[in-house]
Amino acid sequence: MEPELSISRNIAASPEAAYAALTDVTRMGEWSPENHTNEWKEVSQAEIGARWVGHNRNGDKEWSTESRVSELVPNERFYFECLAPTFNDFHFANWGFDIEATADGCQVTQHWQDLRPDAIKGDGTISGVTDRVAHNKAGMEATLAALASVLES
Questions:
Q1: Structural domain of residue 126, as residue ranges?
Q2: Taking a C-beta distance cutoff of 8 angstroms, is the pair 94, 110 a contact?
Q3: What is the DSSP string of the chain?
Q4: Nearest C-alpha neighbor of 76 from the set 115, 18, 124, 121
Q5: pLDDT, tens digit, for every residue of 131-147?
Q6: How far is it, in rounded angstroms, from Cα 86 to Cα 150?
Q7: Distance (Å, rounded) from C-alpha 76 to C-alpha 19?
Q8: Is the pTM above the cut of 0.90?
Q9: Cα–Cα distances in angstroms (integers) from residue 63 to residues 17, 83, 106, in the given order
Q10: CA distance 137 to 59
C-alpha cells in the first residue's frame, strides 16, 4: 500500500500487546474518535479475508462500512480494505498498522490510503467530512494516543 497519510507513535507496550489490541476490531471504539463499534461477520478473529461491519459517527452523521483483512503478519502488520457493500463492495480506502519493536516497547504506524474518485472526495454527504485528509490526520493522532493510553495503563 502506498499510504496517503501515515502517523507514528512510540508506545511503552510490547508488539504482541499492540497487535492483539489492534486485530481485535471489536475494541476499536476504545481508541478511535470516529469508529465506535465493530462486529465480525462469520468469524471471531482476524484472518486474511475476514470481514467485519464498522459503525462510524461524526457529529450527527452516522454510517456503516464493511472491512476485509488484506494483510496480517503476527506482531508486525494488520492491513484492511474498506468496502461499500451497498455499491457492490466498492473498495474505497485502505487502512493499516505497522508495529516495530523498540528498546522500550514498540512504534505503531497507522496508514491510510484514499481510493475514492476525485468526483466524490470532499462531498461530505455521508460523513459530514469535507477535508478527509485533515480529519483523518487528527483522528489517527487521537487513535494512537488513546491506544497508547490503554496499552500503557
A1: 5-152
A2: no
A3: ---SEEEEEEESS-HHHHHHHHH-GGGGGGT-SSEEEEEEES-SS--TT-EEEEEEEETTEEEEEEEEEEEEETTTEEEEEEEEGGGTTEEEEEEEEEEEEETTEEEEEEEEEE-S-GGGTT--TTTS-S-HHHHHHHHHHHHHHHHHHHHH-
A4: 18
A5: 888 999 999 999 999 99
A6: 34
A7: 7
A8: yes
A9: 29, 12, 32
A10: 17
* Block residue for cell numbers 523498540: 102
Give the distance, in angstroms, between the CA of residue 25 and the centroid of all CA atoms in the same chain.
9
Specify the residue for cell string 476485509: 68
Number of domains in the chain: 1
28 contacts 45 by C-beta, under 8 angstroms: no
Question: What CATH number is associated with residue 68?
Answer: 3.30.530.20
Place of cell 463499534: 37
Query: If we measure between CA atoms, which residue out of 5, 124, 148 comes closest to residue 59?
Result: 124
Amino acid at 50: A
Q: For 82-139, what is each residue's pLDDT tens digit?
A: 998 888 888 999 999 999 999 999 999 999 999 987 767 767 777 878 788 899 999 9
